[in-house]
Inverse folding.
């Protein structure tokens, strides 16, 4: 008879206020055979606070591949394992992703116990649009200039609210780059000490934010670019083209003259009749 496999529990822990841990997470941490923690020295404080005696092992960025295989072997042997990070939800800019992948490949059941998340907490407090957002985590470090520039360039025309993490020693550099690339008037909310006694949300512009003195790790929520602004810019680009060049662009793609005129009219914010009349006036 095949031995029953264990289960992996992805457990969200508080990002500041210990009262934010859920009863379900506490039950799983007490009942699991093992807790895989990002930093056992940090997590022991949480476990001691709630009088949890479950043994721990370290699972972090620098051992995530080899340790994942060890943990999977234990899960296959029937052990139940809970994964926690220093704060928030594992796998979200924190260790856990590789372990989940290995479990999926090995047919091990994985479940997530929801709870605190700095991304969602900051976004809900930002005062910016929450309907659609994009989370980029930490930007590539400055030493990886090409990769960093590629990400920043991609964010330039992003219409959704942008959420980033940033460390204090890189904050000014990042804000300066964002201000230049996205525009000094772009709105931003800088969130720190979330859920703690001295929680602080600074709602300002990128241009103003550059002068702030960093005071810890931040979650940055940045206003997306307006679709109206993007459309106006797109139209300006087309208006700089000669009308005949604009028509040729669509004709070369296989559109007939009528379809090409319709596409050109849409690009320029004009009616098809306007395009027809202007083309005909040039032919005379």
């Amino acid at each position: 008879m095949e031995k029953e496999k264990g289960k992996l529990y992805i457990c969200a822990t508080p990002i500041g206020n210990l009262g934010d841990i859920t009863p379900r997470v506490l039950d799983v941490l007490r009942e699991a055979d093992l807790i895989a923690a990002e930093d056992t020295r940090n997590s022991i404080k949480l476990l001691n606070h709630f009088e949890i005696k479950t043994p721990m092992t370290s699972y972090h960025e620098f051992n995530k591949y080899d340790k994942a295989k060890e943990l999977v072997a234990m899960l296959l042997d029937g052990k139940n394992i809970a994964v926690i990070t220093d704060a928030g939800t594992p796998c979200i800019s924190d260790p856990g992703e590789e372990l989940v992948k290995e479990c999926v490949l090995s047919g091990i059941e994985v479940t997530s116990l929801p709870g605190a998340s700095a991304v969602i907490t900051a976004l809900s407090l930002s005062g910016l649009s929450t309907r659609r957002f994009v989370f980029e985590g930490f930007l590539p470090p400055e030493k990886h200039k090409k990769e960093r520039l590629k990400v920043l360039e991609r964010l330039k025309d992003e219409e959704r609210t942008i959420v980033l993490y940033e460390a204090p020693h890189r904050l000014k550099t990042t804000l300066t780059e964002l201000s230049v690339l996205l525009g000094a008037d772009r709105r931003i909310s800088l969130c720190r000490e979330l859920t703690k006694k001295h929680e602080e949300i600074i709602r300002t512009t990128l241009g103003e934010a550059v002068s702030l003195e960093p005071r810890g790790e931040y979650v940055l929520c940045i206003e997306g670019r307006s679709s109206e602004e993007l459309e106006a810019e797109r139209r300006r680009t087309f208006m700089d083209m000669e009308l005949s060049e604009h028509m040729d662009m669509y004709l070369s793609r296989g559109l007939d003259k009528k379809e090409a005129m319709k596409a050109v009219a849409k690009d320029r914010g004009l009616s098809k009749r306007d395009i027809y009349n202007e083309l005909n006036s040039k032919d005379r």
Q: What stands out?
A: The chain has a mean pLDDT of 91. The beta strands are 7-11, 34-37, 56-58, 81-84, 109-113, 133-138, 161-166, 187-192, 200-205, 218-222. Residues 228-283 form one domain.
